[in-house]
Amino acid sequence: MAMTITEKILAKHSGRNSVQPGDNVWIDVDVLMTHDVCGPGTFGIFKREFGVDAKVWDKEKLVVIPDHYIFTKDMHANRNIQILRDFAKEQDLPYYYDVGTPRYKGVCHVAMPEEGFTRPGEVLFGTDSHTCTAGAFGEFATGIGNTDAAFVLGTGKLWVKVPETMKFIFEGEMPRYLMAKDLILAVIGKIGVDGATYRAMDFGGSTVDTMTMEDRMTLCNMVIEAGGKNGICTADKTTTDYVRARTNKQFELFYNDNDAKYHSVHHFNVNEIEPTIAKPHSPDNKAVVSEVAGTKLDRAYIGSCTGGKISDFMAAAEIMYGEKVKIDTFIVPATTDVAKEIRTLKFKDKTIMQIFEEAGCRIGDSSCAACLGGPSDTFGRLNGAEVCISSTNRNFPGRMGSKKSQVYLASPYTVAASAVKGVITNPREFFN
Amino acid sequence: MEAIIKGKAFVLGNDIDTDQIIPAAHLVYKLDDLDEKKNYGRYAFSGVPIEQSGLPQGNIPFIKEGQWQSDYKIVIGGKNFGCGSSREHAPFALQIAGIEAVIADGYARIFYRNAIDGAFVAPFESTQHLAKEIKTGDELELDTTKCSLKNLTQKKEYQLSPLGDIEHILRGGGIFEYARKSGMLAKA
A370, B21, B111, B132 — which has fewest CB within 10 A? Predict the structure, then answer.
């Protein structure tokens, strides 16, 4: 029977020859990821259900990455990290990335690929909705809650309903001023914040075929903002080169059958897509940047799993080179690896870091930081009625802190251009 | 899940995301500490802009100042209820606050799954946009077996969608109990 990549992965992991959308199947889990916000609750349920002396099903398959509330005086947040630390010690976990050590990574969804934990054909669950980012590597990856994660910790299995797949085909060479973020904002604006609920979103076409892994990650990262269960890109040489450079583990590539059935197929010509923005207070409140150009801003923010990768900062540096920002501009490298690269990689004659410093940006330590508000002392948090443009993923009321604030979501190009001008600005102005 | 859930309605609009249900700054309290977990009730729906809290009139706080349990027992929502993050603290916070069921046009899938697998609140789907019909404070009676809802205040009755395959997990008390009953896990 003809199947999509998502269907093939779920069939293999449930020990069946084939599955169909709507089937409820128990699947074997290859990797479970958790962090400081949901790890403590997950471990608590695990012990309640399997006993205080229980051991996790396979410590080689558990990755624990503190990343949310790291650089804060909040005692409860700090206690959560201590709970992770104690559990990692008790279970002798090989893949725990402790705060305050050289192992500390930062944002889990960017750290996971860096460390070789995202591999084609596998099943990855994480206690974070943006776990879907890893679909970029041709695997089934989705977010779950503490109870489900505790079930996986004890059994290595979980039930899933096989999703229908929606296909998104991008054709054409990416224009100089456009980024993957613009494409996914255009998709969410078209189908809405519940346009893919319960479904897989498959990204393909000649544009995606030529994309870097980081660009594919940006596409898959935001499928949850359309309600999607998982995002998926077909693994190719770009994928295998990236993964083989980071792990020796074997993996299997899956492809969509030519006659696979899709819920729907959506075509985009990237030359017809303009720099795109999501206005407050919803990721599907779409406008093209030129429609809202000139809107007064108080702050710009570049960071997170969506927009805090090295390619995101390189893009911002291209715009900010030799410029000064007119508004408070916060830079938060997703991981410590990204933070290192910012200090070494150059645009023209300057490192990215020099460009940001000379532009007057404030640079923070790697973590989720203000993307989701967090404790009141979080770097970059919106504590009042600020209007912010951000390379992050959500602009719900109060998402970045105060309910009085307003957040516009855009590509790192658009955020950087707007930081330099102090008002929402079309990055095309910088590419003439 | 009780066969009959009877109590006051709290009405909200579309796309109620998990940051509105329980803002991220409050995700730090212990979930299994009797006293500390009251904070999840205290801050439930504290992220909803106040003018949209308790429709149709709005400006009705879900939790009264200084309390951690709500006067309301059933939440009425619109489309895409529970969108956003995977935080299980969201259905948990509603349960701690005293909510037993949510009735919405539809759900974001992680919230829906968390509500069921942890058996925190019963997520029912309506067949029409009830948030326009029901007013905050109306007395409701939900029959979870027949999937029917009576508005005792307005003397109206509505049929809800059947719970489907998830009913046995919800009635069983969550994924662990379900797995034990079905033999997937050894009995405790």
Answer: B132
Whether A137 and A213 have beta carbons less than 8 Å apart is answered as: yes
Residue with the two structure tokens 């802009």: B49
Report d(CA A40, CA A56) in Å as an integer.
14
What is the pTM (predicted TM-score) of this model?
0.98
CATH of A276-430, one of 3.20.20.370, 3.30.499.10, 3.40.1190.20, 3.30.300.30: 3.30.499.10
Domain at A5-248+260-268, CATH homologous superfamily? Aconitase, domain 3 (3.30.499.10)
Residues of B in contact with A405 (CB under 8 A): none
Which site among B81, B83, B95 would you substitute to test the A interface, given the most A Cβ atoms closer than 10 Å to its Cβ?
Answer: B83
CB A268 within 8 A of CB A166: no
Domains of chain A by residue range: 5-248+260-268, 276-430
Stretch B167-179: mean pLDDT, rounded?
A: 94
Phi, then psi, of A126 in degrees rounded to 5: -140, 150
pLDDT surpassing 80 at residue B187: no
Query: Structure tokens of A176?
Result: 């100089």
Could you tell me the two tokens for A138?
A: 């041709």
| Dihedral pair phi/psi, residue B91, rounded to 5° | -65, -30
| Count of all residues that appear for chain B in the document | 188
| Tally of domains within chain B | 1
Tens of pLDDT, residue by residue over B83-104, are: 999 999 999 999 999 999 999 9
A74's tokens: 């909040």
Indicate which CATH number applies to the domain containing B67: 3.20.19.10
Report the amino acid identity of residue A129: S
Contact B184 A48 (CB under 8 A): no
Residue A187 C-alpha, separation from nearest chain B C-alpha, in angstroms: 17
The answer to whether residue A190 scores a pLDDT higher than 70 is yes
Banded pLDDT at B188 (limits 50, 70, 90): low
Residues of B with CB under 8 A from a CB of A: 15, 17, 19-20, 23-25, 27-32, 47-49, 79-80, 83-89, 106-110, 113-114, 117-118, 165, 174-176, 179, 184-185, 188
Alpha helices in B43-166 (DSSP H): 89-96, 109-117
The partner residue sitting opposite A399, judged by closest CB among B19, B113, B176, is B19
Q: How far is CA A135 from CA A16, A120, A171, A270, in A?
A: 21, 8, 20, 21
Q: Is B181 among the domain residues?
A: no
Amino acid letter for position A28: D
User: A56 in helix, strand or coil?
Assistant: coil
Asked, for residue B95, whether it belongs to a domain, the answer is yes
List the structure tokens of B105. Answer: 């046009």
| Closest to A251 (Cα-Cα) out of A264, A265, A240, A261 | A240
Pick the residue of A153, A193, A409 with the most B CBs within 10 A to test the interface with B by mutation.
A193
Q: Is A178 exposed, middle or buried (0-12, 13-18, 19+ CB in 10 A)?
A: buried
Mutate which of B27, B35, B37 to test chain A, going by most A C-beta atoms within 10 A? B27
Exposed, middle or buried by CB within 10 Å (0-12, 13-18, 19+), for A124? buried
